[in-house]
Amino acid sequence: MPTATVLLMASVVLGPRDALTGVWHNSTCVGSGYSELYAFFPDGSFRWQENQMDGVAPVRVRWGNWALDHDCLVLSVDSVKVWEGGHLEPAECSVGTDSMLVDFEERVIPLSPPETLTVDIARLRLDLCDENEDLPADVWGVDLDGSRFWRIASDPAEIDRML
């Protein structure tokens, strides 16, 4: 796999490491599966997960370590879960894409050396439900690569149960 280097530039000065600890979900609610999400653990590890309703994306999960470098978030990916092979069929059930991959092989691939990814980060702030009717309550939000994510869990034990 090719190596990509990505730096995450914040438009705000990030606070302590625990400001990002938690599961960040790319939707204001959870439907029949998770949308794209990032999970940042207090030990410096992370997990990125593709939208579960995407029936065709070959890269499903990335694992590795995260670190704050001044106003940047640096993601070092040491393994990925991918779907290989298979063929496309018309989507069924809760798949949100027109097609879905079937008869694929799911593999976890260790990356050596790790891949460094770049994601823009901005607007880490408390989003208020009276400003956004889609929010069930006031919740922390952050923009990652221009898309809004909301923290749906912050306790490390709860994060483990969700993933």
Give structural notes.
By secondary structure, this protein is mainly β. The protein has one domain (8-162). It has one helix at 156-162, and strands spanning 8-9, 22-25, 37-40, 45-49, 59-69, 72-84, 87-90, 99-102, 105-117, 121-127, 139-144, 147-153. The strands form two sheets. Strands 1, 2, 3, 4, 5, 6, 9, 10, 11 and 12 form a ten-stranded antiparallel β-sheet that branches. A two-stranded antiparallel sheet has the order 7-8. A hairpin with a 2-residue loop joins strand 11 and strand 12 (147-153). It is globular and about 45 Å long. The two termini are 25 Å apart.
Topology record:
Layout: E1 8-9, E2 22-25, E3 37-40, E4 45-49, E5 59-69, E6 72-84, E7 87-90, E8 99-102, E9 105-117, E10 121-127, E11 139-144, E12 147-153, H1 156-162
Antiparallel strand pairs: 1-6, 2-3, 2-12, 3-4, 4-5, 5-6, 6-9, 7-8, 10-11, 11-12
Largest sheet data: 10 strands, antiparallel
The string of secondary-structure elements, in order, is EEEEEEEEEEEEH
- Return Rg in Å: 16 Å
Give the overall shape, derived from the CA principal axes.
globular
Termini separation: 25 Å
Tally of separate helices: 1
Whole-number count of domains: 1
> Given the helix and strand composition, which structural class is it?
mainly beta
Q: Tell me, rounded to a whole number, the average pLDDT.
A: 84
**Total E-strand runs:** 12
As a percent range, the share of helical residues equals under 10%
Poorly predicted runs? 1-14
Determine the strand fraction and express it as a percent band: over 45%
Can you describe this structure in just a few lines?
The chain is mostly beta strands. Helix content is 4%, strand content 49%. The radius of gyration is 16 Å and the shape is globular.
